[in-house]
């Protein structure tokens, strides 16, 4: 018995030592409506207005910046006076403060106006961890902060909180472990009703630049708000958050592609793990399954594997409804299909519910026709150059023999006896009415999904991979604010 007690005591000491060796992250609570002690901007001037919002639980602690409903808004007055903040930081008498402000965000002071024009005012719907900054002795002093739900912030083009509206303090992402935080409530920032440390969230950047942000009206949760990035509410459009949205087929796509497709339907991607999976991780299953109808902002948990071969062995080919090659879209409403792809050299927009814009822009790669249930994916791409000689079966584009899938397979197999015929041409067609695809195009029939022609599968980064010359088109110019 004495020996057992000694062993247990030793184990307790070892565990306690390991716990104490992992430091806690000191975090200062910042309540909605509470004035900062050392703000960059006088909070009494009405630069920003917080709201009374009860924090909502989120699936896991990490949220990507394009999660539908991550942020809220109102249909009333503007919650953040961006023009006033811009004028204040560009006045010569505030030059020292502007330099400290810009340095905290890795900017040049001359770039402050343009940077502010790209930010979008929203309301936090979750208690959110950030890296806040006070202004003390001419410098920006960073500290970890927990911002209460209801605080008005400006978010950047990837959905990250960038500025606290009421005081103008610059914000950066929290880089600690959210499970090991020690929150201090003081300086009029008393513990608020409903605070739950397990519901605290950390926002990670979206994998692509957003063009619109899908918000929820904090006063009427049945009303959704589509807000173009870089606007303050004057160009908002409303939609019904009660509308049911079907989970698309995601097995075999990359995690980045699946996240964007879900966001395009007003749904959120979730993953049971410590961190957000890599963009190129292959999705092996979703919960709920494809076809399940959910409300706006509902979470779909994705199971992924980082081994492409494993994903292929589980049926990891691009799903039949994947449609044309990698594109992104400029959504306008929660339930409409995709629009033509933007220029590969330009930023991509957030995939949020939208309506089609018509045919692809001139110079872009025409999309493949939709799958008709044959199971072979999209049609093979057109081939350039003279027809192959009848005595050979080489691919004129690469000079190597393509894999044979038997007679009748498009773009593969050997030439039939007799005179050589030119390869079939693929005609352009309107994008399929199904879900948008933001990952790589399906491989030709018979080709394993993990080994596309010409190399290995590249992770999705928000813009379609292509070997063609970029088109001359550019994304639509965002509306610019004019001084009041």
Overall pLDDT score: 72
Largest sheet: 7 strands, mixed
In terms of quaternary structure, the protein is: single chain
The global form is globular
Radius of gyration: 26 Å
The number of helical segments is 6
Tell me the distance between the termini.
80 Å
Estimate percent helicity. 10-25%
Describe the structure in your own words.
This protein is an alpha/beta fold and 484 residues long. Helix content is 13%, strand content 18%. It contains six helices and 19 strands. The strands form four sheets. Strands 1, 2, 5, 6, 9, 10 and 11 form a seven-stranded mixed sheet that branches. A seven-stranded mixed sheet has the order 8-7-4-3-12-13-14, with no helix packed on it. Strands 16-19-17 form a three-stranded mixed sheet. Strand 12 and strand 13 form a beta hairpin.
Secondary structure layout:
Blueprint: H1 2-21, E1 25-30, E2 62-64, E3 71-73, H2 82-90, H3 95-104, H4 112-117, E4 120-124, E5 128-136, E6 139-147, E7 152-155, E8 161-164, E9 172-173, E10 181-184, E11 201-204, E12 212-217, E13 223-228, E14 237-240, E15 245-246, H5 255-264, E16 268-270, E17 282-287, E18 293-294, E19 299-305, H6 308-313
Parallel strand pairs: 1-6, 1-10, 2-11, 3-12, 5-11, 16-19
Antiparallel strand pairs: 3-4, 4-7, 5-6, 5-9, 7-8, 12-13, 13-14, 15-18, 17-19
List the main descriptive attributes of the protein structure presented here.
alpha/beta; 19 strands; globular; disordered C terminus; seven-stranded mixed β-sheet; single chain; 484 residues
């Amino acid at each position: 018995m004495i020996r057992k007690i000694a062993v247990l005591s030793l184990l307790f000491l070892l565990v306690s030592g390991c716990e104490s060796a992992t430091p806690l992250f000191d975090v200062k609570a910042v309540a909605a409506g509470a004035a900062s002690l050392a703000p960059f901007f006088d909070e009494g001037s009405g630069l920003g207005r917080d709201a009374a919002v009860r924090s909502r639980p989120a699936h896991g602690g990490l949220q990507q910046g394009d999660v539908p409903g991550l942020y809220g808004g109102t249909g009333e007055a503007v919650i953040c006076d961006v023009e006033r903040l811009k004028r204040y930081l560009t006045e010569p008498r505030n030059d020292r403060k502007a330099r400290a402000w810009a340095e905290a965000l890795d900017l040049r002071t001359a770039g402050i106006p343009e940077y502010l024009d790209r930010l979008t005012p929203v309301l936090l719907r979750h208690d959110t961890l950030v890296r806040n900054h006070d202004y003390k002795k001419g410098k920006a002093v960073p500290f970890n902060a927990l911002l209460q739900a209801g605080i008005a912030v400006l978010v950047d083009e990837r959905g990250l909180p960038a500025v606290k509206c009421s005081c103008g303090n610059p914000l950066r992402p929290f880089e600690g472990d959210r499970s090991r935080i020690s929150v201090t409530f003081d300086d009029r920032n008393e513990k608020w009703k409903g605070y739950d440390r397990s519901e605290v969230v950390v926002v990670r950047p979206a994998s692509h630049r957003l063009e619109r942000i899908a918000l929820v009206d904090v006063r009427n949760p049945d009303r959704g708000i589509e807000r173009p990035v870089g606007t303050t509410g004057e160009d908002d459009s409303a939609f019904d958050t009660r509308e049911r949205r079907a989970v698309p087929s995601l097995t075999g796509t990359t995690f980045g592609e699946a996240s964007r497709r879900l966001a395009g339907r007003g749904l959120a991607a979730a993953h049971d793990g410590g961190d957000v999976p890599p963009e190129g991780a292959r999705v092996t299953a979703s919960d709920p399954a494809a076809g399940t109808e959910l409300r706006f902002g509902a979470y779909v948990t994705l199971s992924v594997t980082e081994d492409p071969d494993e994903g292929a062995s589980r049926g990891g080919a691009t799903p039949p409804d994947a449609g044309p090659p990698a594109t992104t879209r400029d959504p306008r409403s929660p339930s409409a299909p995709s629009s033509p792809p933007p220029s590969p050299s330009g930023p991509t927009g957030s995939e949020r519910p939208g309506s089609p814009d018509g045919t692809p822009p001139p110079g872009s790669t025409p999309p493949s026709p939709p799958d008709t249930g044959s199971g072979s994916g999209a049609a093979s791409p057109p081939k350039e150059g003279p027809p192959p000689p009848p005595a050979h079966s080489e691919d004129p584009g690469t000079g190597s023999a393509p894999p044979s899938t038997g007679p009748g397979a498009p773009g593969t197999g050997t030439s039939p006896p007799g005179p050589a015929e030119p390869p079939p041409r693929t005609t352009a067609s309107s994008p399929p009415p199904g879900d948008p695809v933001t990952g790589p195009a399906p491989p030709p029939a018979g080709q394993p999904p993990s080994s596309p022609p010409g190399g290995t599968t590249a992770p999705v980064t928000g813009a379609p991979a292509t070997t063609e010359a970029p088109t001359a088109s550019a994304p639509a110019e965002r509306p610019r604010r004019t001084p009041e």
